[in-house]
Design a protein that fits this description.
Blueprint: H1 8-18, E1 22-23, E2 26-27, E3 30-32, E4 45-47, H2 64-79, E5 86-87, H3 93-98, H4 106-114, E6 120-124, E7 129-132, H5 142-145, H6 148-164, E8 172-176, H7 191-205, E9 209-214, H8 222-225, E10 230-233, H9 236-246, E11 252-256, E12 262-265, H10 282-302
Parallel strand pairs: 3-4, 5-12, 7-10, 8-9, 8-10
Antiparallel strand pairs: 1-2, 6-7, 6-11, 11-12
Helix pairs in contact: 1-10, 2-4, 6-7
Length: 303
C-alpha cells in the first residue's frame, strides 16, 4: 500500500481495477489496512494487523508500523513461493525514520528481509534499462564511491538478471564513463581508465558481452540504444535523466540481486495531489506488468 497519505493506495486500487484484478496467470492482491481499501472486492486484500489512517497529504508517524508490516508480509509471501512477485507503492522515508525505521528505503529493507548481499536499482521501460552505480549522494563523493570490484559485482548482477528475469539469452551491457568523453585517454580524468576499464576487462574475461567505458553524451540516442540491453551508469542523474526523458510515465523501478522479484512505480508519494483524483496509475500498472513478466521469465528459467 505504501505511504497512506500519498498516492500509493489510490494508484494501487486504480491499477488493480484497470487490470481486472489479474495479470497473466496471476491474481493480484493488495497488502494493507482494509480501512484504506473499502472498495476492493472480497479476496483482493491481504490485511495488516497494524492499523493506518489516511489523511491525504499529511503523513502520520502512527502509520509507520502498518507500512513496514505490509512490506514484510509481501516479501515473506514471495520467499515462501506464495506470491510470484511484489510491487511496492512509494513510502515516505522521513516518517519511517522518525518512527525508528533503520533503513534508508525499500531497497535496503528488502535486502535485509531477503538476505541479499548487493541489491541493485534498475530503472526500466520498453525503450531503455539503466542502472546507477551510485544513487543518492553528492556528485563530489561519486568518484571515491566507485571501485573496480563493485563495478564487476554490479555488472554480473545486471547481466544475470537480464538473462534470468528478462529472458535475454545473450545480454549486452554498456558501461558509461564517469568523466566527459569517458576521460578522453586521461585528459579529462583518470578514473575511466584506472577504475572502470579494468572492471569491463574482468567482465569480458568471464564471457560477458560488455562495452565501455563509453561517453555518456552519445550513449542514449535511438541508434546507440540498439547496441545494448542495459546501461550501467556511474551516478544518479547520468542514469535517470535519459530514462525519465524517454519514459517518464511508464518507467519502472526494479530491484535486482534479490531472491524475489520486486518492482515499484518510478514516482514518489506525490502528497500535493493525493486524494484529488489526479494521480496517474500508469506507472503502477507498468510496474505490475513488468513484475509479472519477470516472475514468468524466472519461473521458465528454473524449468
Amino acid at each position: 500500500m505504501g505511504e497512506p497519505a500519498g498516492v500509493g493506495p489510490e494508484v494501487a486500487v486504480a491499477a488493480y481495477g484497470a487490470l481486472g484484478g489479474r495479470i497473466g496467470a496471476h491474481d493480484l492482491k493488495i497488502v494493507g489496512d482494509p480501512a484504506l481499501f473499502p472498495s476492493l472486492p472480497p479476496g483482493a486484500l491481504i490485511a495488516t494487523k497494524a492499523k493506518a489512517e489516511r489523511v491525504p497529504g499529511k503523513p502520520l508517524a502512527a502509520n509507520a508500523a502498518a507500512v513496514t508490516e505490509a512490506i514484510e508480509i509481501a516479501a515473506a509471501a514471495c520467499l515462501k513461493g506464495e506470491a510470484a512477485a511484489m510491487v511496492t507503492a512509494p513510502i515516505h522515508k522521513a516518517v519511517l525514520a522518525g518512527a525508528g525505521f533503520a533503513f534508508p528505503g525499500h531497497t535496503e529493507f528488502l535486502a535485509h528481509l531477503t538476505g541479499a548481499k548487493r541489491p541493485v536499482m534498475m530503472l526500466a521501460s520498453d525503450m531503455l534499462r539503466v542502472v546507477p552505480m551510485t544513487i543518492h549522494m553528492p556528485i563530489a563523493k561519486v568518484p571515491a564511491a566507485i571501485d573496480t570490484p563493485g563495478l564487476v559485482e554490479t555488472g554480473e548482477i545486471i547481466l544475470h538478471a537480464l538473462r534470468r528475469d528478462f529472458g535475454i539469452a545473450a545480454p549486452r551491457l554498456a558501461v558509461a564513463g564517469l568523466n566527459p568523453h569517458a576521460g578522453e585517454d586521461g585528459v579529462l580524468g583518470g578514473e575511466d581508465q584506472a577504475v572502470i576499464a579494468p572492471a569491463i576487462a574482468a567482465l569480458k574475461a568471464r564471457g560477458f558481452a560488455v562495452t565501455g567505458p563509453l561517453s555518456a553524451d552519445t550513449l542514449f540516442h535511438e541508434k546507440a540504444r540498439k547496441g545494448y540491453d542495459a546501461a550501467l551508469c556511474m551516478y544518479h542523474d547520468q542514469a535517470l535523466i535519459p530514462i525519465k526523458t524517454l519514459s517518464f510515465w511508464d518507467g519502472v523501478n526494479v530491484t535486482l540481486g534479490l531472491p524475489i522479484v520486486r518492482t515499484s512505480p518510478d514516482h514518489g508519494t506525490a502528497f500535493d495531489i493525493a486524494g484529488t483524483g489526479k494521480a496517474d496509475p500508469g506507472s503502477m500498472a507498468a510496474a505490475i506488468r513488468l513484475a509479472a513478466k519477470m516472475a514468468d521469465a524466472r519461473a521458465a528459467a528454473h524449468e
